[in-house]
Structures are given as C-alpha cells and as structure tokens.
Amino acid sequence: TGPKPLAGRKAIVTSGPTHEPIDPVRYIANRSSGKQGHAIAAELARLGADVTLVSGPVTIPDPKGVVVIHVERAEEMRDAVLAALPADIAVMVAAVADWRVATAAGNKIKKKPGEAPPPLLLTENPDILKTVGHHAKRPKLVVGFAAETQNVAENGRSKLERKGADYILANDVSPHTGIMGGDRNTVKVIGKSGDEDWPEMDKQAVAERLGRLIASHFSG
Ligand code: C5P
Known about the structure:
CATH topology: Rossmann fold
CATH architecture: 3-Layer(aba) Sandwich
Protein name: Coenzyme A biosynthesis bifunctional protein CoaBC
Number of domains: 1
Keywords: Decarboxylase, Flavoprotein, FMN, Ligase, Lyase, Magnesium, Metal-binding, Multifunctional enzyme
Radius of gyration: 18 Å
Number of helices: 5
Shape: globular
Bound molecules: cytidine-5'-monophosphate
Binding site for CTP: 98, 108, 126-129, 145, 159, 163
Strand content: 25-35%
Order of helices and strands: EEEHEEHEEEHEHEEEEEH
Function: Catalyzes two steps in the biosynthesis of coenzyme A. In the first step cysteine is conjugated to 4'-phosphopantothenate to form 4-phosphopantothenoylcysteine, in the latter compound is decarboxylated to form 4'-phosphopantotheine.
CATH class: Alpha Beta
Low-confidence stretches: none
Mean pLDDT: 95
Distance between the termini: 22 Å
Domain DNA/pantothenate metabolism flavoprotein C-terminal: 6-215
C-alpha cells in the first residue's frame, strides 16, 4: 500500500556475498549478510517497481514481492544480472569477491603429511557494476555501494566515475563501526553534483531514503 512512484519501472538489485570455490567443500567469500541489499529490493517493490533480486548465498529470507535469483559465484551473478536487462534501475549492493581461484579443484584437495600447503592462484572476477554502468542497455539510474575502511569520499568518487554510476553510497566498514552484518549503516551519498552525508540509521531506513532518491528521478 501507499503511493507507487516506481510503478511500471523495472529494477535489478544485487545483494549478499559471492562464494568462489577452491574445491567442492571450500570457498573464498566476503563478509556480507545481504541485509542492506534485500531491504532495498523490498523497498523498490513497495514503491511499485518490478524487482529482480540477484542474491549470493545468505541466511536471510527472500523478500516478499520480488523475483529472487539465487547464485553462488560472481560469474553467475553477472550472467543473471545481464539476463535481467533491460531495466530502468540497477542497484548493485552485493559484496562481490574481487578474485576467484583460477582453476577450482574438481575433488577435495587432500592434506598430505609433510607436504607444503597448496598455493591458490587467483584471477580477477568480472566487475558487475562497471559492466552495467557502461552497458549498451545501461539502466537510466545505476547505483553502487562502496565499502571502505579509509578515504571514504575520495574512493567513492573515483568509483562513481570508473564504474559509470549515478550514485555511490559509500560507507566506512572498519571493524569498530559494526556495519558488516549489523543492522545499522552510515552512508555518504556521492553523486555527480556533490556529496551528501546521511546520519546513522538502520538499513531499512537507508533503503527507504534511497527509494525516495530513486523515485525523485522518475517523477518528471
Ligand atoms: O570496487 P568495489 O568492489 O569497492 O565496488 C563496490 C561496488 O561495486 C558495489 O556496488 C558492488 O556491488 C560492485 N561490484 C560489482 N562487481 C564486482 C565488484 C564490485 O558489482 N566484481
């Protein structure tokens, strides 16, 4: 219920971490609960958008009123996002692993007495936000996040340009902030025409405020 300023608009949201396999039982991942991305997907749906949520492995439930595509790896997440284009809005919240193991083992790597630990050769994962931000079918509005532990504003602004986003919501995820996995968030919104500091609020409130910002771009 309530006004539906995003009725008729399609949105793609990514959320959660990605898991990059080392072998069938081990993986590399980022710390991400999916709470912020899932809250944003639910909020855009509440505002009337037709939302596809592409989620990495999380323990929280699928939001209601949203089409959810579950993936594990960054390459799967990229494929699902590109398959969901065209869209009016893309909000890339997932904590995508920057690297994956170049050749994941098909069988469990066994620990052999007296042998050195196996080296892990890493290769770069696709940057999904950057791909979407420069895509021929680029959504009208592209939003990214930037989890930083230092130089939040500077790093966020360079990310805005490099990735072709309209907004970057940058946050300080230093361990003392408790943002990773927590319920609260403090973000700096970096846009083409300047920065705005939002006060500390819960992740649901960040989703609502971002929903209003997004809706303002589609209201004539
Ligand atoms: O470069 P960095 O990972 O800090 O950028 C964060 C932003 O880029 C987030 O919006 C994240 O979802 C997105 N991203 C992505 N694909 C990657 C890495 C980051 O979509 N491989």
